[in-house]
Amino acid sequence: MVEIDILTEFKHPNIISLLEVYIYDSKLWMFLELCDGGALDSIMTTLEKPLSERQIRFVAREVLAGLKFLHENLIIHRDMKAGNILLTSANEVKLADFGVSAFLANEKQKRDTFIGSPYWMAPEVIACEALKESPYNWKADVWSFGITLIELAQMRPPYNDINPTRVLLKITKSDPPTLAKPRFWSTEFSDLLARCLQKDPNKRAECSELLSDPFVANLSEKDRECIKLLMCELKADVIDTVEESDSVELEDEEEHAEENILILPDSTKIEVPMEVVDEDEENYDNETKARGELLDLGRATENQPFEVAPQKPDESLLQDLAQDLSDQLIGEVITSETRHPSVPSCLFEVMRDISEEVGVGQTIPEEDRLPPQPIVPKPPASEPKLSRRASAHKSLTRTRRFVVDGKVITTTTKHIIPVNAEVLKQREEDLNSRKAELRAFRMLGKQEARQTRELTAKAVQQKEQLETKLATEFLALKRGYEQKLEVVSRNYRAQLERLEKEYETDSKRIRSTTVKEGQTFKEQLRKELDKCSRAERKMAMRELNSDNSLFSGGSTSLSASLTSLNSLHSNSSQKSVISQQLLSFREQQGVRFTSHMKQLTLAFQERLYHLREEELVEKHTIRMNFEQEKWKMEQRHMHMRHQLSRSKLQDFFSIKRQKLAGLLELELYELRQTITREREKLNNIHSIERKNQAKYVKNMQKKNMTDFHRHCRLDPSLTASRLKERLREDKHRPKSVYSSIHSSSNQLGDMCKRSSCRPFEEATRKQLGDETYEFEQKLQRQQELLEYSIVVRLKELEQSHSDKRNDLTDLETERLRELDEKHEYELRSYIESFTHTQTLLRAQFQEELGQVSSQPSLRADPSRTKRPISSRYSVCPSSNSSNFASSGLSIPSTPMNPSPPRFHRDK
Questions:
Q1: Compositionally biased, Pro residues: which spans (predicted)?
Q2: Is-contact 401 410, C-beta < 8 A?
Q3: Is this structure's pTM higher than 0.85?
């Protein structure tokens, strides 16, 4: 979807156009602009050659223009390579494949995703494989652009001979890559590469700066002709010509095309020698047979006359020549290290040819005369040439002819192609191996991405489940807290209602008791009226009746009744004894009633105050317990969240370690496969070389001894010791004596006759033995060198992965430490907030207690506030009357203990 968004929103001449997007057959299809020229890497593969500098210059300018547009819009391409640069029929250069591109929110934002093609990755992108500490921005495209320029110049990116899983380490550890043969390219091109391939992103140039570089500056539309030429060459008719190629041509072609050949990863270049066939022995047998026939013919015609020349050559010159040749013979036999035919065989061939040349028209001593040689077929050359099999390679000449602006242009490319089925099979296996390695590397990346997605989804699900569980626990705790508060409030209201009812009941009982006392006192007064006169009795009855009317209302207070009674007596002219007694009784009764009611009210207010205080204490205890439980729950929840985060982080690094282990296993498997192939190849080479060496030793020994024996048969008195003595004496004789070699061969024969074959045989055997020993030593050194390189590569691979594991472990430890520190900081912050909350709750509680104490209706008697809350308050009238005393007022009170609370959570 990112690619669709980019191609839909951003349009540029150097960016491929998106024409339509639709869904067909449950698949998303993108209808893109047609670029019939194809990608540059496929063009180079088809033409079998890299681009020219002029073509690279134009392509670089166009690509930089497209990248500059992308970077100005905060887009990172992240997959810049020749395979994503397309050519159109209008000779335009287009950037394609934005599937892994990324948007940036602002210029300061960076990305830390490990993505892209290995050979073109920037060092900062590779660093994000295990560590996310060095994110990258759009300058990563500049590095990939520099690698792409090298790819266009050499057909392959740098380090293409290295395994793709190990090239990442090579890029980060090595210096920035350069051109393989910079002398073939301009200085401006190398300078542009140096500006692009800076390992430090801060020192790397921007695309806008690179557009002003001398290499790409001052280009016009006329320079587009080079792209037109490339397109015409791509579409031209091809004529292929296959020819046999010899070894010299093969070596020359390999030297010229060395950088274009994809070498096996992590391998050493080993040349396989061709096995020597058995034709040498046949040639040698034919040659020996011909020489034997020649000698037989010489003996048969021994008595035939010869024409003697009038001039006789100088014998001393011939002796010196023979000594020099013998000296070279002995020295070469002892010190020769080559596999070419040894000097003895060459020497005797020269001697034989000289003998043939001087055999006619020369004077030969009569004792040494031989009959003239008949015309016989010339024997084959005695020098054994190693005949090779039919060439395993052929030369492919590919000619392209095309017309540009009316001119016929012809281009020719020559390549060495293998004909041997084994070579073709090996190359195909190497290509398939490389593809399998890249595929395995991509599969590891896809597996890591899939596991990361699954881990992220699992972590999100676990977090949601945990938050749901924690929310449920908190709601249950809060619901329990609210229920406890509701219970306390309900109990408080119930106790308050009961207290009010008790207060009303006691008030009514005091009133009823007071009324009963008044009625009893009046009954006593009525009984005393019998002793009084009628007038007094009548007045007393009127006063008593008047008092009854005053106390008839149960709801009227006693003080009001006394006031009415006093006013009544003050209006009367006469005060009887009864009225005085009644007034005195009413006054005393009013005092008692007021005292009782005051005591009852004070007891009620005190109980009400303690009831309110108990409610506040209990609610405060519940709040404090709730905050304590809430703190414990939050602490447990924070710990669970922390453990979930730790588990997620550990799982993430576990995926990284699994990928690293898979990468190590993959690299070890590929390296072992490469080592096995190298060992097999080296063993095959050694087997062929040993076989060739054995044939070489056998042929050379037989040929040299046969030649020497033939000459010894001509003169058995020839001794090697005498030859060596003369050679030592005349070692520094001038070489000009070779000029007289054509004068005569008879004197040379005289010298050879004085030698013996045994020393020569021993010298030849010793020389061949030394060569064989040195040959085996060389093979052993090659084997040891290969084993050493194998050990070095294995140690290097193990060390690199050990470093990666250590870096990953260090990063995991650091991230876990940061996570633990964050958790500890959150705990400290919450502890501080919890302490502050407790302080606020205590202050609020004290404030509420102060408000309760300051209310007049709830202010208690200071002398009674010291009494325990759980005691029972009794209010008794202080009357001497037994009835009133027996009717003591008692107000029951519910015991209230603020600590511990009535409802407490089990810990």
A1: 371-382
A2: yes
A3: no
